[in-house]
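Quick one: structure for this chain?
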Amino acid sequence: MATAVPAVSLPLPRRAASSSPLAAARRPGSPSLRRRHCAVTPVAAACSAAPPRQLDNEEEGSGRRQVLVAGAAAAAAFVSRPNPAASESKKGFLPVVDKKAGYSFLYPFGWQEVAVQGQDKVYKDVIEPLESVSINSIPTSKEDIRDLGPPDKVAETLIKKVLAPATQKTKLIEAKENDVDGRAYYTFEFTAQAPNYTRHALGAIVIANGKFYTLTTGANERRWEKMKDRLHTVVDSFKIENRI
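Got it. Here's what it folds into:
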C-alpha cells in the first residue's frame, strides 16, 4: 500500500510449520504456501475417426470435478441418513457446525476435508487446491474485535504476519466491519502474489468465547470471477455459535 500501516498488536495465531496450510495435501512440484497447482492427467479422447482433441486444463479439471462430485453424491445418498442441518443450508453448499469450538460456516459441495497442522478445519477442492477454506482460533483476553483497531489496520497486520509469507507481495483490497446478531466481525479481501501464481482471498475475523477466530477462503486469480460468489457465500455464512 502507498502509506505505512501503523503497528497493530494482535493475538495472532502462529504460521503453520509449513508455509502452506494445505502443504500436507499438495503434490510434488506444486507451489508452496497455501496456493498450489494440481498436475492433471490428460483425459483420453473418445475413439473416433477424427484425431483426438487435447483438452485444456480448465476443461479437464471441470470434467474430473463433475465425475468426483457425482461419485461423492452417490456415495452420500447410499450410506448417509438425511441431515436436518444440511437441508437448511444453501443449495450447493454443506454446513460445518462445531458447537464445542463455537462456530459454523458453509463450504461448497465437493470440497474435501484435509488435516493441516495449525488449522482447526480445512476443506479444499480436489482439482484446484488453491480453492479452500480454513479456520483456526486462539485464546485472547480481548472481548471485541474492535479493541484491536479499525478493520483495515487489523486486516493488513493479519495478512502480512500470518496469512501470507514475507516473500509474497500482498494487497489489501477492502476491509469493513459487519454486525451479526449484535457481534462485530471484520471481513476483508486481499491478494497474495507469488512468482508463478496469485491467490485472491477473503477473510473474516471475530472475537468471542475468549477466542480470536480467523476464517479464510480463496482461489487462484485466474478463477476468481468464476468462484467469487461462492467464496463470498462461505465468508458471509461464518457465524459464532453458542458453545456447549
